[in-house]
Structure formats: C-alpha cells, structure tokens
Amino acid sequence: MAPTFNGVDFYNTDGLLSEEERAIRDTVRSWVDDHVIPIIGEHYLQGTFPKQLIPAMAELGLFGANLPEAYGCAGLNNVAYGLIMQELERGDSGVRSFASVQGALVMYPIHEFGSEEQKQHWLPRMASGRVIGCFALTEPDYGSNPGGLITVAKETKDGWVLNGAKMWITNGSTAHVAVVWAKTGALDDPGSIRGFLVPTDTPGFSAKNQAGKLSLRASDTSEIVLQDVRLPRDALLPKSAGLKAPLACLTAARYGIAWGAVGAAMACYVEAVGYAKTRVMFGKPIGGFQLQQARLAEMLTEITKGQLLCLQLGRLKDQGKMTPQQVSLAKRNNVAMATDVARETRRLLGANGILAEYQAMRHLANLESVYTYEGTHDVHTLILGQEITGMNAFN
Amino acid sequence: MSAVLAVLEQRDGTLRKVSHEVVTAARRLADALAGTVDALVLGAGPVAGSEQLGRLGADRVVVLKHPAFQRYAPEAFARAVVALAKTGGHAAVLLPASATGRDLAPRVAVQLGVPLVSDVTDLEFEGGAVVATRPVYAGKALLKIKITAKPAVLSLRPSVFTPVERPRAGTVESPSLANAEVGRVVVREVKAAAAGTLDVGEAPIVVAGGRGLREPANFKLLEELAQAFGGKASVGASRAVVDAGWRHHADQVGQTGKTVSPMLYVAVGISGAIQHLAGMRTSKVIVAINRDKDAPIFKVADYGIVGDLFEIVPRLTEEIRKLHG
Amino acid sequence: MRIAVCIKRLPDSETRVKIAPDGKSLDETGVKFVLNPYDEFAVEEALRRREQAGAGEVVVFSLGPAAAQETIRSALAMGADRGVLLQVDRMPADGLVVARALAAELKDGAFDLILFGKLAIDDYNHQVGPMVAELLGLPCVTSVSRLEIADGKGVAEREIEGGIEVCEFPLPAVLTVDKGLNEPRYPALKGIMAAKKKPMEIKPTPLGVGDVEIVALTLPPERKEGKIVGEGPAAVLELVRLLREEAKIL
Fold first, then answer.
1. Are C188 and A61 in contact (CB < 8 Å)?
2. What is the pTM of this model?
3. How many CA atoms lie within 13 A of A104 on its CB side?
4. Percent of chain A with pLDDT strictly greater than 90
5. What is the architecture of the domain spanning A13-127?
C-alpha cells in the first residue's frame, strides 16, 4: 500500500508540509498508483472516463476536500487540497478535471452562493459521489469572454425558464446536476449573470458527448442544450450576482490546476529519468549524454520552482490573503512548464514515447487542454499585465 | 561434551527434506565444538528416513512418539523440544525456518529464556560463541550476530545448508512420550495442494513467470518446462501475476511472497523489480529470458537469453527433456 | 471486541542500503520510513473485527523511536482508537527484548485479540508475535491468511509447504497475519485529520540488554557479472551447454 511513486523533491519541500499534509498526499499518491495508473492508458485510448473510480474517490474524501465537515466534506486546508490535485493529475488530467469540476466548480459555488437548504441538500450527496455535477459557463461563441454569454434565464410566475447552449462542459453527460450561468437581464449586462442549479433530468436539458477529441480523452466533455428548461424559484443560487460569481469559481479551480500541472510534470520527469538511466545507445545509457542531461536539469529546475510557487500560494490561500492574480501567475507558469516537461520527456523517450505504454504523450496531449481551459495561457498573461500596469489590454 | 540439538520435521510419517539441512548444519556446528548431534523428530509413529540421518552426521536420533504429534501441535511440540533441550544441556538448538519451524522456534526460545536468531544462512563458532549470519533488508544486507545466551537457538533458511555426508553412528531411539496434550491451538486438517506440486520455497529448481507471459493460460509453457526437469522443479510467479489473480500467492517469489534459494532459478518474462530480486537473489544459478535486453533481471542473471519467450521456452523444454532421457 | 495491534516503523522496501560508519547499522540518511506492510493487514483485520462486533476498541502499540508516533498515527488514521508508543532510543537486535516490553504493556489490557504482521520486512525475524503469546500464556497462530471468529472461538488458515493448515483456537489469542487476509483500506482523508485528536500515550521504555550482539552489517557479495548467451531460440543449445559444463548444475 505504500506508494510506488517516490515523488520529486529536490528542495525538500516535504519539510515545509505538516505531517497531515504529507500523509494526505501519500494516501492519494498510493491510491493513484494502485487504481488510476494501471487503467488510465486504456481509458484514454478508448475515450472513456473511469466512472468506476468515483465511489473510491468519494470514500477517500476527494470531492470538495477543502469544504467544511459539516457538509460531509473532509474539511482540509488548501495546501492539502492542492496536494490532492497534484497527485490526481500525476495520474491523468482527465481524472483531476473530474475532481476539480465536482469540488471547485460545483460544490464550491453551492457552498459560496447557495442557500442553507441548497447546501444541506446537495453538498453531502456530492461529497459522497452519489450526485455528480458539472459547471456550465462556456458557450460555443463565448470562451475567453464569459461576460458575453447569451444563455438567458427569464423569470416566470413559478420560477425561471432557461434557454441557451453550453460547450466544452466536463462531466456534462455524467452529471446529475448542472450549475448553469445565465443572464436574467439584458444581453449586454454581465451584471445580470446568475447561477442556477439545474437537475439534468429536467425536460429541455440535453447533453451530448463531444467526440473526436485528441486531448483529455479520459474525460467526459459535452455540449449542453437548454431548451425552455423550466426551474422552480429555488433553483437560483441566491448569492450569485454578476460575473464575479463564476469567476470566483474559476479562481478556485485554477488554484487546484496550478498544483495539478506540477503532478503531471513530476510523472513525466520521473519517467524520463528512469528511461534515461536504462536505455542504452552507443554503448551507454542515454542519460550519460550531455543533451539529455540538459533536458533533465531543465525539467528538475522548472518542477522545483513550480512546487514552491504552489506551496506559497496555498499558504496564502489558507491565510485568506490569496488574490486571483496570484493564481493566474501560478496556473500560467505551471501549466506551461508542465507542457514543456511533457514534450521534452516525449522526445527523450524516442520512438517509445509515442506509445500509450508510456505516460509522456498522454500528459502532453492532455496538458494542451489544460493550457487552454480555465483561462488560456494568454488570458492569464493579460490578467497579470493589467495587474502590473493598471491598463486593460483585453480589448 | 557439547551437544547440538537438531529439531527436524516430518509429514505423514516421512522426514521432510529440510531435515537433512538441519542435521548438516548441526554437524558443522558440533564439529566446531567438538561435540555431538542429537536429532529430534516428533511424530505419532515411526518416521521413515530416520535411519539415514547417521550418514549426514547425527550421533543420536530421537523419534519421540505420541498420538498428539499426529499433526503439528504448537504447544505440545514446544514443550517436548524444550524438555529435551533442558535435559540434554545442549549448546545450541537448530530448527528449520519452514512454516512450522517459524511457528515453533520462537516458542522454544521463550521457554528456554533465550533469544532466537532466525532465518540463518551461515553459522560459525567464534570466540566461544555461536555467530550466525542472516540476510536483512530483503537480502540487501547481511547481518552477523553473536549469541551470548545458552543454548543458542537458531532457525535455518531452507535450501541453503546443502546436505553433506559426514557419517556418524546415527543410533535411532523411539521412545513414546507418556503425557502430551495437544494444547489450545488444534490443527483440524491439512488441505493438501494439488498432487505432485513441489513447494516453491523448497524446490531445487524454480521456473518463475511474470507479466511477459501475457495471459494466465500461457503458464502452461512454464509447467511443461518444470516437468521436463523430472519432478525437481516448481513453478513460481512474480507479484504482478499473483495480484492479477493468474497464480496463487503460495507461488509468489519476492519480498511479500517467498524467499527462495534454489540451485537454478529461471526467470521468464520477469523484468526484475527490486522486490522480486529480494526473493531470489541468493539462488545459485540464475537464468533470465526476456525480450527486453535492458530489463534489470539481466543484471543479476548468470546467463540470459534475449528474445521471444514463446519461442525460447519450448525450445529449452525440448533440450531439457532430451537431457533427462 | 478489544483488539490490540502491534506495529513497527521501518525502512521502505525500496531503500538503497548504505552501511553506517559503525559497520553495524543502517545509514538512515534519506531513508523513507513506513508502516510495516504486513502490519497494515493486521490493522485492517482489527478494524473489521471491531466493526463486525459492533462495539469495542482497537489499540495500536509500537516499540520504537519518537518518530514512530507518525506511524502510529497512520494506523489511527485508518480508524484505530488510540495509540501507545513504547519509546526507545535504539531498536534492540534481540526480538525477545522487544517481546518482553510489549508483553508487559499488553498484559493487563484484557484484549480478545492481539494482532501482529507475520514478519517485519527489515529484519525478517518472524518471532515477536509468537514470543509475546508465549510470555502472556496465550494461544497463538502464525501467518494467518484466512480467519473466522464466532462465539469466542476462531478458525484460521495458514500456508505451509504444499498445503494449508486449518487451525482452531479459543479466544483470547495472539495471531500474526499474512498478506491475503484482507485488503487494507486507505485512510479517509478525514481520518488523517482526526488521527491527531485521538489519544496517544508516549511511554519511555527502558530495555534489557539482550543476549545477542551485532558483530557486523555488510553488503552481500556482488553477484558476478553474468552474460547474455544469445538471442532467440538459437541460443538455447549454448545455454544448456553452459549450465552443464560451466555451472555444472544439470
């Protein structure tokens, strides 16, 4: 049961963790080694999410792990939450995406913007994995510019009626409930954006798998259509007001992704090192040649930096001091560096690197999605630019 | 004069092979002490093989009989061994580190009030004391340990002390014990493994398979090879195939399985993870067959063949069959 | 049901062994310490038996250095109720010394079951469990891979060469457990946090000297470099020749 993966810890960041944080990380690490790694390559090839893992993930307490125990969650601090995401993504970005959506994009807004009744009803069910959720913000024509969304929610005598279409929704076809963001006022008024809890069996709600993905294949990615979806009054998340509500969810998810990317990078780096030490060419292991050593040195450096970034970010979050811009810096850096590490690992592995038997190319392909979602790399660049200069370069 | 007590093992009225190893080791120690070897075996009746122990160096063989000894009975066995050790004033008591021996030896040691040094692979008499060597950290290190207590109680790793002829009197006595109670732990039955299977921990030749065999049905190839060795070989398995449910845990070689020391270990389709090596690295000769020439197993193998095991193993079986006529 | 589980903190199975300068012990720099894998089966079994009985207590004992508190806490995280650390400066080489210290601690605990892993993967001694049983005068079955308990009695299966022994025994009893008895649970993350709040007693434990002395700890002789005889079935003839004429084992 002790994990097979030994981690990457050049600067003894383990020494900066508490005993509990290490134990939590080691438990998830072990579980990923035992249950994700052996099956995920096959699921990736088949294009399926390993649903059978959901009950075990719930039992461990991986869903909404940083939400309070009062709602059936693990009540962990944010560093522990980050370590969980790191280990999950070391397995596969699709598995981590599932947990990110469930915890940070559905349970989080219910906890943050929901009524006590909504919290009591949904959170324990989602913590136990009995109810799966999805987060519906992105639309076919509105990705990087979520404020422009055109899904509408018209108030009726008994409640609401929603119309619109969403795209690139993780868990869309698996979910029992969708957090749908829609405008209750004029289309040019992002301030009228509100969140709605939509049970996916409500008439008018349909989800369709988006086939043909070459990335994030072990994940359910779906388009959603809302056609005259009638909801009761209490479907509204009462405290959600304007764009800042979904953005707060994104910040929560991005925080986990910054950690997750480090996990993917670690998986690739360890694979690269193992291969470099044993693969013999020209009479010695390729790890003895300068170009490969340069690759490995670069990877280790970037991973170490990424680890320290995450850790301080987590401590800031736990102190209540974290800003969205700090998250942007970490997500932007870590995902970009992980993509590089994955690519360089793929190259170091030579021809073997294109096989699903090795992890690098799967991580590389996945990370392209992670680079783009939750705020593209470029969007985070501009977020930082605006923070630094005070000037908006978005449009 | 010093005496060494060799505690042997029988099953269904016949001495188990590991008993020869214990007598051999006892003889070696007794020679260093200029002493004698008493061999003790407990059973319900006569024990076949007792007469031959003189050849291996036993001066005296005691076949202690009682119906309670029909099957292993921990409390009764311990008491009987301790009684003989106490009256005999033995300098050392040796037991096999077999499944039964591992259960029995600690009890004997506690009743004698002395430590137990278990799973010993070498022993000497140095500076007036028994000094034993035993593998630790999964065989990654060797511990040399001196026993200052008397008697020195040791259990010996099977398949290490190769029997050697050192003829002594080997007089057999067969007393019946007057009183023996089985005790609180009762062996109700022994479920035998499939007929003709030789335990992986005791076979002189082990042919072991790993994930390279691709499917459980392909283990047939290894069973055929094992058979070609004429009843001396057992089929072992790596942890991966045991965890996958292809083979029994009893056949697992490795850190969480059995540690084996056969004369010949043939590793087929096994990459050679550290935990597997821990279980077989003390084999006298290791042969590896694997399609990956960089597999770690080749680093510990004395001889290796790189290639497709599905072609190589049948060919090897053919050649071995020819050898054994 | 009152169950005691004795656990050991030891180096991870993947540890690269380096001998300390004293030539008698392991150099612990950079070594990762874990709960003995066989003890995980023991902890899991204790938890299941307590759950089955509906009520009771699982108490974890360990003889070890201060750092063993973390190991005990991992058992508490799995669900054990409280822990006791018999704190020592150095792990004794003599298993009987360990057994005596544990037995003294367990004596008055009125436990229905006392569980151990069948062996520790660092020393492979296979002895402390049955020694404790002997010192406490309790029945003991070792290497249990299957277990049934009902009405104060138990039936256990243990692997022997070429078969399985089925043993009956009365409670209270000491059992040492083998892989395959159960599938140890992962501690729920909530459980890891809760472990901190569970009671843990730390008792400095003076030990007897013991009657063994470590002479040396050494690395095993390197196996001589072997050779790849050839490729494919064509190499078989040469292999057989070498096994007969060079290794002389056929």
1. yes
2. 0.90
3. 23
4. 94
5. Orthogonal Bundle (1.10)
